[in-house]
Write a structure and sequence with these properties.
Layout: H1 14-22, H2 24-30, H3 40-55, H4 71-92, H5 104-121, H6 134-142, E1 144-152, E2 159-169, E3 175-184, H7 195-211, E4 218-224, E5 229-233, H8 239-248, H9 277-284, E6 293-304, E7 309-317, E8 324-335, H10 337-348, E9 355-361, E10 367-369, E11 374-377
Parallel strand pairs: 3-4, 8-10
Antiparallel strand pairs: 1-2, 2-3, 4-5, 6-7, 6-9, 7-8, 9-11
Bound molecules: iron/sulfur cluster (SF4).
The site of iron/sulfur cluster has 15 residues, from helix 2 and helix 9.
């Protein structure tokens, strides 16, 4: 595999590793500077991470140690600020749906979960934030050895973002162990950590171990803020596997092989508009245009801007390159919200050919293409293409 001309050395993060495991082509496409996509869950997660990071680095020097009822106001002020930052980033990301302001209450719950986890780590669980004294929070902060730092092996090949590195201390205040804590704002595992999360936590642990010659015992934990529960990842070193994956993922100009299937193309893949393989996979297994939420490549024959009503002609793949064959099958549809906006932008850019529509809702007489949908030019990158 060839190394691209980029001056930046190749390094592998757990999310890239995971993407590559799901489908090498997905990983390759994710590195082609195609228009990025974001969603509310990611923005909420980033805002919660940032606010916890803020709270463990507060400057409390001007406050009396016995003061209480100060945390709720500071926590709210930090969350508001981080929420607004994320909103701006969300709106400036090329592919996004509607910003859901009502999700703020979820962010507040998750922030409270993060505070609860920190208090529990300091041995004071179930304390209402208004009862946190300044002295207690200083104790919590003293247990935080690092917050939101970059982790990288000495050779630079493996990396990740460490949320929190914490100390466990004994009665004498001596450090007895380290805890790698990764804040998780997604659904808590039931009952065990997902394999990819476990592997990520073990990788963080192993990078720290490889960089520190004489560390104390280290635990790696997922801290689930929604339920304020921790889950420990245990297991052998994953460094050998990570280095093997690093080697396989050195960026090259030729598209990596696709791994079609229910867990890859059938799940979330943000790069379908540039990949022909989900399409032929669906056609071959008889699931093209089947289901309540579907992806399709269509020709838009008519569009009424005032109502968003449209007439779509379904296309099928001629072959594995993604060349479309119009089928003559017409479907009524309605473009709504950002779906309509994105289609109008496509038209104003002069696009005339087939359109990729992602996550169309099909359970009504007219298909609905709403704010949650991708509306993109159909531009599959063939297997033999090379990136510039
Ligand atoms: S559509 Fe399927 S084959 Fe193509 S990149 Fe996505 S997961 Fe891989």
């Amino acid at each position: 595999m060839t190394q691209s001309g980029s001056a930046k050395p190749h390094s592998l993060s757990p999310s890239s590793w995971n993407r590559w495991e799901i489908c090498p082509r997905q990983y390759w496409l994710s590195r082609q500077r195609l228009p990025r996509k974001t969603g509310m869950a990611a923005s909420l997660g980033t805002a919660v991470h940032a606010t916890i990071e803020d709270l463990v680095q507060l400057d409390l020097s001007g406050k009396d140690n016995s003061e209480t009822d100060w945390m709720p106001a500071i926590a709210e002020e930090r969350l508001q600020a981080r929420w607004q930052e994320e909103k701006e980033i969300f709106e400036n990301t090329p592919r996004h749906g509607d910003w859901k302001e009502k999700e703020y209450s979820k962010a507040r719950t998750q922030q409270a979960g993060g505070i609860e986890l920190l208090l529990a780590h300091a041995g004071v669980p179930k304390l209402a934030p208004k009862n946190i004294t300044v002295a207690l929070w200083k104790r919590v902060m003293a247990l935080v050895l690092a917050a939101e730092g970059e982790l990288r092996t000495k050779d630079g090949k493996l990396m990740g973002r460490l949320d929190l590195l914490l100390a466990d201390v004994n009665e004498k205040g001596e450090i007895t162990s380290w805890v790698v804590a990764d804040l998780k704002t997604g659904r808590a595992p039931s009952p065990d950590l997902k394999p990819e999360v476990r592997r990520q936590l073990l990788l963080y642990r192993d990078i720290i171990l490889s960089n520190n010659p004489n560390p104390p015992p280290i635990r790696a934990e997922g801290w689930y803020t929604d339920t304020a529960k921790t889950y420990e990842a245990q297991g052998e070193s994953v460094l050998d596997d990570a280095y093997a994956a690093w080697k396989e993922t050195i960026p090259g100009t030729t598209p990596l092989e696709p791994k079609v299937g229910t867990n890859s193309c059938g799940g979330f893949c943000d790069w379908k508009a540039w990949c022909p393989h989900w399409w032929s996979w669906r056609k071959d297994n008889g699931t093209l245009h089947v289901g309540d939420f579907i992806d399709a490549v269509v020709l838009v024959h008519s569009y009424e801007p005032s109502s968003g009503a449209a007439s779509l002609e379904l296309c099928e793949p001629i072959d594995d390159t993604g060349r479309p064959l119009p089928t003559g099958k017409m479907v009524p549809a309605v473009f709504k919200g950002r779906g309509a906006l994105n289609f109008e932008l496509l038209k104003s850019d002069g696009h005339q050919g087939p359109v990729y529509l992602g996550s169309i809702l099909t359970n009504a007489q007219s298909w609905r293409i709403g704010s949650w949908c991708d509306v993109l030019p159909w531009a599959p990158i063939a297997d033999s293409s090379t990136a510039e």
